[in-house]
Design goal:
Layout: E1 25-28, E2 31-34, H1 35-49, H2 53-61, H3 65-76, E3 83-87, H4 93-105, E4 114-119, H5 122-135, E5 141-145, E6 158-164, H6 173-183, E7 184-195, H7 201-223, H8 226-238, H9 242-251, E8 255-262, E9 267-273
Parallel strand pairs: 3-4, 3-6, 4-5, 6-7
Antiparallel strand pairs: 1-2, 7-9, 8-9
Helix pairs in contact: 3-4, 7-8
C-alpha cells in the first residue's frame, strides 16, 4: 500500500475489536464480554487446541499459512546476532524459521542469533518447548509465559518483534502495540502476520462460506472442538481492516508503517520500525 500513517490520523473506519460503549466490555468473537474475562476465554480456546495448533492453522488457511510465514521471514530478513521476541509464539515455528534464516546469512558460521517465544497460554508454551527439545533447538530459543499487554521483557532489548496469528486475540490491542515499541531497540523492527479482510469481492463470498460453514464443521470432525473454530472465524471478522490496523500501529509510536496483503487479503503483514 502506498499510504503513510502517522499518529493522530483518521481512524473513524475502525471496525475491529471496538468498545461496545462501556469501557469494561469488549468482544470475544461475536459475543460481548467483560474485558477482564476475555484473556481467560482465549486461554481456554487455545488450551483446547494446543496439541493440534499446526493442524488448526492448516485448516484455517488450507495449508497456505506455511507460505505466509516464509513471506514474513523473507520480509524480516534476519541477521546474525539479532535477538527476536516472538509474541503469541505458539509452537515456536516462527522462532525456528528466524534462526535458520539468520544462520543462512552468516558468512563465517555465526550462530549468535537468539529468540524468545512468549505466549500467554502455558499449554502452548509446553507444546512448543517439547517440540524444540525434539528438534534440538532448545539451546537458542527461550520460552516464557506472558501477556502481550505486559511483556516480561526489558525495554529496548530486542532487535525484532514478531507476532503471527496472535494479536487479534489480545484484549487491548493498543496496549500490546505500545509494549511492542517499548521492548524494541531503537532501529528495531515490528512485523505482524494476521488474518485480515479480503480485498477481492468474489473471493470474499467464498471465504465467508468456508469460514462460517466449512471450518467449524472441520473443527468438529478433526479436532472435536467446533466452538474453538467458530470463535477463531469470528475473531478474524472482528479484527480491524488493513488500513485501520496500520493506523493503530502508527498511533502506538512505531514509524514507517507498511502493509502487504497475502492471498487477496485473507492475511496481511504489517511492518514498522522503532526509530
Amino acid at each position: 500500500m502506498g499510504l503513510r500513517y502517522g499518529p493522530g490520523m483518521n481512524t473513524e473506519n475502525h471496525n475491529g475489536p471496538a468498545e461496545t460503549g462501556q469501557k469494561d466490555e469488549t468482544h470475544f468473537g461475536f459475543q460481548t464480554v467483560e474485558r477482564e474475562q476475555k484473556s481467560g476465554m482465549v486461554r481456554s480456546v487455545f488450551n483446547g487446541v494446543a496439541d493440534q495448533y499446526d493442524l488448526m492453522n492448516d485448516l484455517m488457511s488450507v495449508g497456505v499459512h506455511r507460505l505466509w510465514k516464509t513471506a514474513m521471514i523473507d520480509w524480516l530478513n534476519p541477521r546474525p546476532g539479532w535477538r527476536l521476541l516472538d509474541v503469541a509464539g505458539g509452537t515456536g515455528d516462527i522462532a525456528e524459521r528466524f534462526l535458520a534464516r539468520a544462520d543462512e546469512r552468516s558468512r563465517d558460521g555465526d550462530t549468535s542469533a537468539i529468540a524468545t517465544v512468549c505466549d500467554i497460554n502455558e499449554a502452548m508454551v509446553g507444546v512448543g518447548r517439547d517440540r524444540a527439545l525434539d528438534r534440538g533447538a532448545l539451546e537458542r530459543i527461550s520460552w516464557s509465559c506472558g501477556d502481550a499487554e505486559k511483556l516480561p521483557v526489558a525495554s529496548a532489548s530486542v532487535d525484532a518483534y514478531t507476532i503471527a496469528f496472535g494479536i487479534r486475540n489480545v484484549t487491548n490491542i493498543e496496549a500490546a502495540l505500545v509494549e511492542a515499541r517499548r521492548v524494541l531497540k531503537p532501529g528495531g523492527r515490528f512485523l505482524c502476520l494476521e488474518f485480515s479482510h479480503v480485498i477481492i469481492p468474489g473471493l470474499k463470498s467464498a471465504y465467508d462460506t468456508y469460514s462460517f460453514k466449512v471450518l467449524p464443521a472441520l473443527g468438529e470432525l478433526v479436532a472435536r472442538n467446533r466452538e474453538a473454530y467458530q470463535y477463531l472465524a469470528e475473531s478474524i471478522r472482528q479484527f480491524p481492516d488493513q488500513e485501520t490496523f496500520a493506523q493503530m500501529i502508527a498511533d502506538a509510536g512505531l514509524e514507517q508503517v507498511k502493509v502487504r496483503n497475502l492471498s487477496g487479503g485473507i492475511a496481511a503483514m504489517h511492518s514498522a520500525w522503532r526509530i
